[in-house]
Amino acid sequence: MVANAIHSAADARRLARRRLPWMLFDYIDGAAGQETGAARNRAALDAVTLRPRILKDVSQRSLATTVLGASAERPFGIAPMGMCNLSRPGADLMLARLAARYRVPHGVSTVASTPMEKIIEKAEGYAWFQLYFSGDGKGTFKLVERAKAAGYKTLVLTVDVPEVGRRPRKLRHRFKMPFRIGPRQFVDFALHPRWSLATLFRGKPQMANFEMDGFEFDRTETRANLTWDILKRLRDAWPGTLVVKGVLDVEDAKGLVMAGVDAIQVSSHGTRQLESAPAPIDVLAEIPGALGPDYPIYYDSGIRSGEDVLKALARGANFAFVGRILQYAIAAAGEAGLHTMWTILSEELSLAMAQIGVTSIREACEQARPLP
């Protein structure tokens, strides 16, 4: 069983690279520019150390926590990722079922390959809708109304993509959605028959949230029109919880608090946008002291292990989100691979907690909170 060969995120990535067409692996795996930003982010995470503490009874440990007042069985959830069904048909719903099982948020991307209504149903309500603003905003606000009607209570506005970053690995394959099959892509798919046949049988993935009456999606529309004024309009239009994702500046974080945003998410979009962006884990350390101990701060970007999750908590995050490694696991071994990867993250986190002498997520977070 392939899932039994996954013992770390690196194993899942290696197997995914073998099983996916090159075009799709590089789309999922790639980062902006020459990918020095991704390397810098990884180096920054590696540089964060956790101090072992001894002679504490850590025999009973809990990974449970709360996020936005709701109980969650893990301090990490599922980051919004576009077109997850590229990794394997049905991936969106695999993630949704996982979210329901562990009562964690499933970030549902604007460009998900399964309709938002179906995902929140399978997630049993444990889903947040991630929103991109584009063009003049008419289509964006239609999506907001659709998310509201579908039962979403949390909206995650992503603000760090005024224009889509250049990712040379994706560009070399001429990756586009929907697929345009030329000789190079045909050979790529032919050399990966397991993925190609499964996708042919289930139908090629589409941007499902744009298949709605009265809405025409133009992927070339700019996202550069998003402003503080539009944020105010969105705040007024959305009755639920509003999270802003893509924060890498303390002054921006303060401004979002003043604008009535309920939580922020420190993120570099997985280093897929600005190659020169600072490492989010370093920025994260500056923010709790500026916003105070009670304001919710979330983290994503580059998490590859349970220890990375603990590092984010130790730097001041209340909750973390995991992305690409879950897609690697699905590509490697389907739903079984996904659950294996989730178990590995959980075990790594629990073992690291024992080493630093904490038994709860609250203890792990409190170790980082600045003194008044």
UniProtKB/TrEMBL annotation:
It comes from the Bacteria. Residues 1-372 form the FMN hydroxy acid dehydrogenase domain. PROSITE patterns: FMN_HYDROXY_ACID_DH_2 (PS51349). SUPFAM superfamilies: FMN-linked oxidoreductases (SSF51395). Keywords: Flavoprotein, FMN, Oxidoreductase. Transmembrane segments: none annotated. The keyword Oxidoreductase applies. Its cofactor is FMN. Belongs to the FMN-dependent alpha-hydroxy acid dehydrogenase family. This is Alpha-hydroxy-acid oxidizing protein. The lineage of its organism: Bacteria, Pseudomonadati, Pseudomonadota, Alphaproteobacteria, Rhodobacterales.
